[in-house]
Amino acid sequence: MGRGHLWDDEDLNEPDNVGIQLLLGGEREEIHETSSDSSEDEDEEGQVLETDLESKNLTILSLTSCLFPSKIFSLFFSLPGFHRETVESVRRSIDEKHSIANAVLEINGLKFAYNASARDCILASLTAIFETCDFSSGDSLKKVIRPWSRLISKFIQGADDQYETLVTIQEYAATHEVVAKFASVILSTFYDTDVLEEEAIRKWFKKLEASELKTKVLPFISWLDTAEEEDEE
Predict the structure, then answer these.
(1) Contact status, residue 168 vs residue 123, Cβ threshold 8 Å
(2) I need a labelling partner for 135 at 20 to 30 A (CA). Which of 36, 48, 82, 176 fits?
(3) Prediction pTM value
(4) Dihedral-angle region of residue 151 (phi above 0 means left; psi in -120 to 50 means alpha; beta otherwise)
(5) Per the structure, how many domains does the chain have?
(6) What are the C-alpha distances in Å from 86 to residues 6, 61, 75, 115, 169?
(7) What is the per-residue pLDDT across 172-193, written as a single tens digit (0 to 9) for each?
C-alpha cells in the first residue's frame, strides 16, 4: 500500500526520548523532551520543535489523504496494525478453512485491542476476501464470497453499514479492474446471502457516477427491476 508515517510505540515509554519514524522519506527523527529544570530558552526551543513536528505530521496526513482518499487507505493509515493483522487473520481462516465463528472471535479480539469500529472490521475483511478470491471466473469467485459473506454480515448493523460496504467495494474496484469486471457477480452473491438489501444497493447505484463499474453493475440492477415487476404482477 502507500507510505505514510508511523509512531514508534516502543520509545513512547521512555521518559527521555520520543521516537518518530517517517516512512515517506525513510528518515527517523528523535525528539528529546526538556527536563523540568531546563531554562526558559530550552523550553521555548522545545515548543518550537513540537510545533514544527505537529505541522509536519499534519502535512503528511494531508498528503496521504489526497493520494489515498478511500476508506480502505484511511483505515490503513489510522489503524495500520489492525488492518494488517485482520487481513492476515481472515486470509488464514479462509485458506485453512476455519469456521466463521472462529474468524469472528479473532476479529473481535483485534477490534477491542485496537479500539476499532464495526466498519473497520468490514473494510479489512472485504480486503482479505478479495485478496483471496480466484477471479478467473464467476463460479470460482462465488466459492469464496458465498460462504465468507457471512463474515461480513456479522459486522453489519444496519442500512448505513450496507451502504458503506458498497462504497468500499466501489473504492476497491477503482484500483482493481478485475473487481469491477465481476461487480455484478459480487453484488448478486452478497444480495443472495442477505448481506446487502435491495434498498441499499439502489441507493448506492443511484449515486454512482458513470464509469466502467456502473456499466458492469447495470445487468444486476436490470435483474432487480425485472424481479420487482414480476413480484408486482
Answers:
(1) yes
(2) 82
(3) 0.65
(4) alpha
(5) 2
(6) 18, 23, 12, 13, 17
(7) 898 889 999 999 999 999 999 9
